[in-house]
Specification:
Largest sheet: 9 strands, mixed
Number of domains: 2
CATH class of the largest domain: Alpha Beta
Radius of gyration: 20 Å
Order of helices and strands: EEHEEHHEEHEHEEEEHEHEEEH
Shape: globular
Number of strands: 15
Structural class: alpha+beta
Number of helices: 8
CATH topology of the largest domain: D-amino Acid Aminotransferase, Chain A, domain 2
Bound molecules: 4'-deoxy-4'-aminopyridoxal-5'-phosphate
CATH architecture of the largest domain: Alpha-Beta Barrel
Helix content: 25-40%
CATH superfamily of the largest domain: D-amino Acid Aminotransferase, subunit A, domain 2
């Protein structure tokens, strides 16, 4: 496995970061999880935009342009001979001293890892997930804003620990006002009377690229989409429920806190959106090996 680290492509064994890196010491940094399908990096521009917005919010100046960063991602895939997989792109504040002060960190650490993945077995996409709501509340936006995809994931890890305790793969997190926010690594959607509903940003969520993609797909198909707050009551009484995320893609949720959603089977609209999402992954994003694109012979 070849990793991009600070300007070089190095074997995994040499891809090491200092113990004085503030990404490690304080979670001071930002990242993206990106997917590649069919020789293309899906929604790469959107991921780079979010990465740079996250960096700007934590006042971290990225010493590379988005075009340069895009090339790093594509080249990491090429060096690993991958046409699909999961990409982790990370920018930390860099090496500093043991104090908090970011001014001590002179240069961000940047690395990119590309690997093969499948988060859930195929069977779970057919059957749907059983999940619970956890007691850990999502970070309030006025403290660590969930819109910033920072290396500070302890809030989500607490929720994951609770899910692990009862043996379910994901957990729904509420915000501090008891509105439904998101899952530990996914956004949530419900369907009620033909309307697709998902929490708005201000509830305190990561604005998922998959979430936005599904909203676009749904609107293109004439489905009414509402970004509005809702509670667990609305989840329990929904006609359908699903999660979206780069790793999970679009995955049905069929039971929440022991209550089956509708008949306890993935719903029609969920299937429709899964199929449309999968179609889009065939055509969206820059090519990794352009010479292999259909109709391009050299
Ligand atoms: N919420 C959280 C907390 C996440 O970590 C993720 C995964 N990045 C998502 C939502 C889904 O976002 P995306 O669709 O951009 O992967």
């Amino acid at each position: 496995m070849i990793i991009y680290l600070d300007g070089e492509f190095v074997p995994k064994e040499r891809a090491v970061v200092s113990v004085f890196d503030h990404g490690l010491l304080y979670g001071d940094g930002v990242f993206e999880g990106i997917r590649a399908y069919h020789n293309r990096v899906f929604k790469l521009r959107e991921h780079l935009d979010r990465l740079y917005d996250s960096a700007r919010t934590i006042a971290l100046e990225v010493p590379l342009t988005k075009d340069e960063m895009q090339e790093i991602v594509l080249e990491t895939m090429r060096r690993n001979n991958l046409r699909e997989g999961y990409i982790r792109l990370v920018i930390t504040r860099g090496v500093g001293d043991l104090g908090l002060d970011p001014r001590k960190c002179k240069k961000p650490t940047i690395f990119c890892i590309a690997a093969s993945i499948q988060l859930y077995p195929d069977e779970l996409y057919e059957k749907g997930l059983e999940v619970i709501t956890v007691s850990t509340r999502r970070n309030i936006p006025s403290a660590v804003n969930p819109r910033v995809k920072s290396l500070n994931y302890l809030n989500n890890i607490f929720a994951k620990l609770e899910a692990n305790l009862v043996g379910v793969p994901e957990a729904i997190m509420l915000n501090n006002e008891n509105y439904v926010a998101e899952a530990t690594g996914d956004n949530i959607f419900i369907v009620k009377n033909g309307v697709l509903i998902t929490p708005p940003n201000y509830v305190g969520i990561l604005e998922g690229i998959t979430r936005n993609t599904v909203i676009d797909i749904a609107r293109q198909r004439g489905i009414t989409v509402e970004e509005k707050v809702f509670t667990l009551f609305d989840v329990y009484t929904a006609d359908e429920c699903f999660f979206t995320g780069t790793a999970a893609e679009v995955i049905p949720v069929v039971k929440v806190d022991g209550r089956p959603i509708a008949d306890g089977k993935p719903g029609e609209m969920t299937w429709e959106l899964i199929a449309a999402f999968r179609e889009l992954t065939k055509v969206d994003g820059p090519l990794i090996f352009p010479e292999e694109a259909a109709g391009c012979y050299s």
